[in-house]
Structure formats: C-alpha cells, structure tokens
Amino acid sequence: MSVIADEGGFTRKVTSYPRFLLHSFGQATSGSPLFYAWMTLLTALALVGANAWANQVANGMQITNMTDHVSWGLYIANFTFFVGLAAGGVMMVIPAYLYHDEDMHDMTIVGELLAIASIIVCLLFVTVDLGRPDRFWHLFPFIGRFNFPISMLTWDVIVLNGYLLLNMHICGYLLYIRFLRQKPNPTWYKPFVFVSIVWAISIHTITAFLYCGLGGRPLWNSAVLAPRFLASAFVSGPAFILITFHVLEKLAGLRFGEGARRTLLNIIRVTCLLNIFLLLCELFTEFYSGGSHTASARYLFFGLHGHNSLVPWIWSAVLLNVAAAVMFLLPQATRNRSFLTAACLMTFAGIWIEKGMGLIVPGFIPSTLHEVVEYLPSVTEWKITVGIWAFGLMVYTLILKIAVSVLADRGTTGDPPGT
Amino acid sequence: MSTDSKPPKHDSGKIGFDRRTALKGGAAMLGMAALAKAIAPITEWTSDMSVDEFLQKHYKELKPGELQTVLARLEREAVEDHGVDVSINDYRPKEGVKFGYALNLSICIGCRKCAEACHIENNHDRETNQSYIRVFEMEKGGIDFEKGDANYNHPVPQKDKFYMPVQCQQCENPPCVHVCPVEATWKEQDGIVVVDYNWCIGCRYCEAACPYHARRFNWKKPEIPSQDINPDQGYLSNRVRPAGVMEKCTFCLHRTRKGKLPACLEACPTGARVFGNLLDPESEIRWVLENKRVFVLKEELGTKPQFFYFFDE
C-alpha cells in the first residue's frame, strides 16, 4: 500500500514542477494590453542597449568617455547603486522574520524578487565595464585564477552570486510550495532567510570595501563609507518597494496591507535621517581639516579650479534627500499614498546620484597626481545603461507577475492553478 | 496580498493555434531576430579571435613548449595585423638582480625626452601620444602636485619651477597587484611589476588602486605605422598590446634584463636618471641611495616605491 502511495506522490512531484514552470511561463507571456505595451517598450530599450554594447566590444572602449584619469564611470556608478538596492530589498525580510510579523511573510517576496532583479543588473553593469568580456572565465574559481582572499573584487564575486542564489532559492521554494497549495516547510527556507539577512549586509559592505580599501583615493579611503552605503541602501530599497506597491495597486488592482506599508515607512524614517547624518560626518571631516586630500570633496561640492560639472548634481541629490526626509516625517506620509510615493521617488533619485556618479566620479577627480580631467558619459554609455535598466525592470516585472499570480491564489483545496 | 480581478480563464482545453498564440509566437520570433541583429558586431569581433587565443592559459601556467607556441602565434599575428616581422621573447628575471631607479630633481629640465623615448620604445599608440611617463612642472617651495602642471607648453626650464617625471614606482607593496581579481598582474623576482596582456580582463581596478597614475588602459587597439614599430619585443613588456587590457612601465625589461639601460634613461640629455641593481653594492644606484638624501613619493601610503628622487646640494 505504502509503496503505491509513495509512487503516486513521486509521480505528482515529478509532474508538478514542470506544471509550475508552465504556469510561470504562461503568466510571463500573457497579460493586459498595458502589460504587453510595457514589455514591448522594455524589450526595445534593452535591444538598443545590447546593440550599443556590441559596438563597444567591437570598437573598444574608446567610444565611452572614460579616460585613464577617470577610469570608471556610469557603469560602475550604477553597479554601486544597484548593489544597494539589492541589499535594501532585505529590509522587508528583517521585520517579517526577526520580529515574527507573519502578515509580512508574503510581502517579503516583493523585496526578495527586487534583490534578484537588482543583482542581475549589477552583474550586467560589471560585465559591460570589462575591457575583455571574452575573458570572463578567468574570474571563475578553479578554472581561472581567482585572487582570493587578497582582491576585494573576488569577495564581491562570491557575495553577489551567493546572494543571487540565496534569494532565488527562497523565492523559488516558497512560490512553488504555494503553487502546490501546501504549507512551506520551515527547514527548507527559514535558515536561508536568516543567512540572507546577514548576506545582504555583506554585499554592500564588501562593495564599499572595494573603494575604501584604496589608500591612494582619499575620497573613498574613509571608514564611514560602508555605513553610509548601508544607510542609503536601507532608504532606496524600501522606497522602491513602496513605489512597487503603489504601481501594483494602481495598475494591477492588487491590495497591500497597511501594516507592511507602515513598517517600511518607519524604517525609512530612521534610515533617511541616518543617511543624512553620516553625510554630515563625512563633510565635517573633509572640510574642517582641509588639505590636498580633501580636493575630491571640494571638487564634488564646490568645484575645483573652475571645473564644476558635478556640483549641480550633488546639490540636487542633497536637496532631494533632505526634502524627502522631511516629507517622510510629516503625517501626510501615512495618509496620502501619492505624497508618500513622491517622497520615495525623490529620495530614490537622490540616492542614485549620491551613490552613483556622485561617489565614483569624484574619486578620480583630481587624479592621484592632482590632474583635473572631468567626465560626462557618452551616448554609448547612456544607451547601455538605459538598456540594462530596462532589462532589469523586465526581469522584475516578470518575476513579480508570476509571484503575484501564485500568491493571490487563495484556494485551500482542489488543484493548483494552471492545471 | 489579494486581487480584485476575476480568476483568469484557462483555455488549456483548446487544441491548436488561436490567433493570440500565433501573434505571441510571431512577436517572439521578431524579438529573437532583432536581438541577433543588435549583437551582430560581437559576432564579427569574435570571428577575428582564434580559439587558441581565447583558451590561452595564464603566463605562469604555460609550459615552456606552450609558451613558444604562444610567442610564435603572436609573431604571426603581428605580421597579419601590422605587416612587420617582430621578435617577441620571454625575458626572465636574473638571479641576484633587483632593479631600482633614481632621479635627480636638481638637474631635470623638463624636456620630456624620456616620455618621448618611452612612447617609441614601448610601441605606444601614436595618435594619443601615450607614454608611461608624465612630467610635472612644479612650483618651487614644496612638492605639491596640486600646484603642478603636466600639460605645460613653453620653453623649459622655466625660472622658479622644477620638473618631476613620474612613472611606475615598482612598489614593494603594490596595491595594483593586490586588487587584481585574476592575478593578471604580479611582481617579478627582480622587482618589476608586469601584466599578462593575454590574461587581463580589463576591469581597471588596478588603475583605480595605483596612487601614482602609473597604469594605462588600452581604450582601443594601439595604432602605429608599420615602419615605426619597435620589433624587439617582450611578451611581458613592449609588444603591441591588444585592446581592452591594462599596461604599464616595465623598466623596459626587454632591454634591462639583457643588461641594457631603460630607454628613458638613454634619452635623458642631462643625466638626471640613475638605474641599476640594488643588490650590487658597487652599483651607481646604491651610491646614490647611500650618499644623497633621497625620498619616495607618498611614503605615508606604505607602498614602498623602488623609484627614488633626490636633489643635489
């Protein structure tokens, strides 16, 4: 008897995973006219980016505006920002699991999926920054020559890919089990969730170490860089999730509980102030002591020897972040969704500037021998960047759509959806 | 999470193509075709690359026979690409040799002949006038690069100025080597920091890490008229570099490991440059280190440069 029952279970298991994949594929390829229009737009933009990258590989990186003086630009700026977004995704997970807020368990998937899409975007930005993408395999442990543990970049390879796998496992498992209308087995996901919380902090810490470990770059060579990275990540991540909630409510007719929104807002209220405070600490140290090692900060905020192309950018970032912080603290933030979303968009843009171009480019200006060569991205760089953003949004939209279809299925008996 | 929308209709009962599926299939085909078209330049680019080049092992892992095959291939490619016969050799460090360089700031006149010699000797891109040496015109009264200028364009030497050429300092504790994720750059036994141009992935982390602006990236393939190519080439030094990889000063190892002097030293009209074996007590470089007050750039960073500056009294 038991043998037969087991066989039945086994068969069900064997066929149920393909059914889950089929259901996911169906969800990913059908939807409202708006969905098709959105995906078509993103596909078109991603293709423009792919074409620009192909040209960059074929013609060499001379078609970017990077130079030997400013040798990292828009790509690494966006990479840094997206590591933060990926780490920030975990800010849904911490209250849900550490404080046993069961209502939030479903919603954490929104944050974990954001982490998956962001890490994919990170990996793409690093890839397009490589002068020799054909030699990517040199970076594989055992096959290539992995300079571990001396090179911080090898640490980053490990933590970023590890974070991607962790989140793919957690989301994949939870969604599959929910698809089967079973209760998830905590042993199969809870330990991974707790590891992912620590891991999220590690990805942004290691990414900060990439920069702050360089003694020859005074702007980056600061102990407060990793805390600043984390503080801003824990603003941009929850802000993006709140924006996602709002968009899904408006366009997909979903309803999210007020509790989750309040939790996220409470987190942002703290982290956005912390972010501004850490910036102030940095600014005081730079400007009160003075000297030639503060030249990059002077260039960034006030311009240097008549060169000031980043000055308007960084002040708009400061303005956006401060204004958003005030808005988050106002009572309207809890009552008015559009008001909250506007604040989220503002701080998201502010952190994109501050932890992107506003951090990477002035690290190189002035150069280590104090030459001032400025940098503005070329058309190719913008095209590739927009293409990767579009691809990331495409991934996020698709996995979110699949997740929503599974989680919204409230049935307790009967066949799983898609049968 | 809940939804307002009605449960989706499943039309899995239907058999065969409906209009919607056909449209989707068409769109997918169109998308694939567009993608193929978009990345076509890469396909062209890879058609120029041989399988041997793609699969080439790290310099330190090549057995002697394999290395000879690689050198022969590179020489063949030089004929194909530039129409010149070159000789690419693997010059190894010698036992008991550790190179050091010193520069007399009192007599350097800022003529930039060293930078020019480097440009020619090391097969640099002609159009960008690339060189591993940058010469700074400095204000007297301090060694402050913030007041320095590398783009001066007037007769030299100027009164009230002094001149400071900067190139790779061949650090004992090189940050560029530490940060490389794939060990494409390393410090050799004789103190020279080298790059395997066929292993570098072009991430430019070393360029960010170097405190002396000593590294250069090949933003494009160097272009040099065939007749101007220096045919005496080293695998780890002055062979014409591929696009997309890092390069740097190697103290002209293809010359110095044969007992010759670096090109920049030979070109110097004032004798400001002193090069030699730090392990040889009789060498001129040792005499300078012992008898002059020497200093190194950015000593506080702990990089321990093997390139020294000094003044005459």
Structure overview:
The complex is a heterodimer of chains A (419) and B (313). Chain A is an all-alpha fold and 419 residues long. Chain A has one domain (67-407): Formate dehydrogenase/DMSO reductase fold (Up-down Bundle), CATH 1.20.1630. Chain A has 15 helices and one strand; from the N terminus they run H-H-H-H-H-H-H-H-E-H-H-H-H-H-H-H. The longest helix of chain A has 32 residues, at 258-289. Chain A is globular. Mean pLDDT of chain A is 91; it is low at 1-5 and 411-419. Chain B is α+β, with helices and mostly antiparallel strands and 313 residues long. Chain B has a domain at 108-251: Alpha-Beta Plaits (2-Layer Sandwich). In chain B, 28% of the residues lie in helices and 16% in strands. In chain B, the strands form five sheets. Chain B has a four-stranded mixed sheet, with helices on one face. In chain B, strand 6 and strand 7 (193-195) form a beta hairpin. At the A-B interface, helix 2, helix 5, helix 6, strand 1 and helix 15 of A face strand 1, helix 1, helix 2, helix 6 and helix 7 of B. Strand 1 of chain A pairs antiparallel with strand 1 (2-3) of chain B, so a sheet runs across the interface.
